[in-house]
Amino acid sequence: MVSPSLLRRYSQVYPVGSSGARFPEILKARRRAHLDALDSFAIFSGVPREPGSENIWIMSAVKIFQEPAVLHLCGINQPNVILALIPGGLGKFCGEEVLFLPEKNPEREFWDGVRFGIPSTSGTSAAVGTDLEDIRILTGVKDVRPLGEFEAWFETLVRRWKKTRGYAFWHRYLDEQGKVRETRTDHNFEFKQRIEKLGRGVRRADKRPFEIRTCAPLHFELRLPLDRDQVKDVDKAVAVTRDAFLETAPETGVLGTETALEARLQYGMLRRSPYGLSFPSIIAGGRNATVLHYLKNDEPLHSGSLVLMDFGARWGSMHADITRVLPVSGKFNPLQALIYGIVLEAAKENERNAKPGATIRALNDKVWAFLEKSLEERFFSKGGKAKRAYTGKPHGVSHLMGEQEHDGDPHRIYQDHPLQPGWQISNEPGLYGHFAITLKGKRYSEWIGIRIEDDLLITKTGCRNLSASIPREIPEIEALMARQAISH
Question: How far apart are CA 9 and CA 14, in angstroms?
């Protein structure tokens, strides 16, 4: 078992959630699953630099930034990591797993903190042995080599490998119509081009050209079902997010601005989780809530209006992604309650439909049709008028969640794949626009943006709402808003 002191020492670059000291064994099992499924070697490249570091004026302070595929397989959260998986290995040349890391840089660590690295040969033999052993213990990979040796090593691998293909991780997929969807703007595509060029330069004994294919579809097939510890991490992330929300909501009216509400909410999450936020929070009051990715977060909150909060904390490498809508004055007016109720019923309907075998695309079609039907029956048929910047479907009602807050292939081809037990998805229907109606003789007219978002875990028979403990019913929310603000 890994000692707590070793986990603490490397916690900046080795984020461990609920699995704790068992994490190295989990990493080894994940790699084993890939090795068993692969029919040739596969190379995974981490990010070449921390986000924003290509611009000297950016200080992004992102806590976890690693390519999720690399984080999933070796747990290392730092730049310049390459992992090779070679089914069957190549005898004395290499085994089935090889990890490439940059050289240890004490001066850089003085500025930025501890990093995994190959110790310099100028160091003492005891220090060299200790550092390498730490890497091997935490990652479970025994063959650890200097990053500078990768290209020569790869060329030798291609030269000796009997098959004429190998794999790299980059985003290339075939959609349901057989059309290629490929991302060419990230480091994964650049790395693929790099090793493709190396492979073309190798003179093989059989003189056959060597091909690099993508292993991304296989990787996601293995990665997307959450394991027991990942579910624990999601539950913890949701609990942190819930507790921050519960203590922040009653203070909404007195905080007065989106900025203050954001600060109070994020303080509640950050003081409970060392892993940081899932994403930048959206705090959108009044008409601002009709902007889907509103991030300005600096305007006043007006009495009688609503405020939409889209927020979440991390635990380990897992995320919470929650949206709730609060009445700034503590009570929904009749128009707000009407529109809110329509969205809430749509969320419940989608939750009932989320089960193995369903597809996200089908869920999406059903829930927006349900919402529009409800809007017709409960609003338009009563004389209501609406001005919206969209027709039908303003956004997807669900996305996959996991090692990435938005997980799965970035082209969302997974929308047509049947949901599997262990997959985690969001559930976030919404209505956005200007709504007006006369109710009990009084005219109501205002800009409203309402989205209700929960996190669902697909089970064998349906789904579990992981965020069910976060209030969303109108009486629950109004009761919460009526509580005396909690002092700390």
Answer: 9
Q: Cβ neighbours of residue 153 under 8 Å, at least 6 residues apart?
A: 94, 98, 100, 145
- Distance between CA atoms of 222 and 123, rounded to whole angstroms? 40
Q: State the sign of the Cα–Cα–Cα–Cα dihedral 385, 387, 390, 394.
A: negative
Assigned token pair, 310: 């889209």
DSSP string, 407-421: -S-TT-GGGGSPP-T
The closest alpha carbon to 138, from 185, 74, 79, belongs to 74
Residue 300 phi/psi, 5-degree rounding, is -65, 155
Predicted TM-score of the model (pTM): 0.93
Helix/strand/coil for 99: strand
Structure tokens given for 467: 């965020």
Give me the amino acid identity at 146.
P
Residue at token pair 């090793």 = 195
Identify the band that residue 220 occupies on the pLDDT scale cut at 50, 70 and 90.
Answer: very high
Tell me how long the chain is. Answer: 488
Distance CA(320)–CA(454), nearest Å, equals 9
SS3 399: coil
Task: Please report the domains of the chain, with CATH numbers, ordered by start residue.
Answer: 4-223 (3.40.350.10), 228-482 (3.90.230.10)
SS3 397: coil
Residue 122 pLDDT class (50, 70, 90 cuts): low
Phi, psi of 166 (to 5 degrees): -140, 175
Average pLDDT over the chain reads: 94
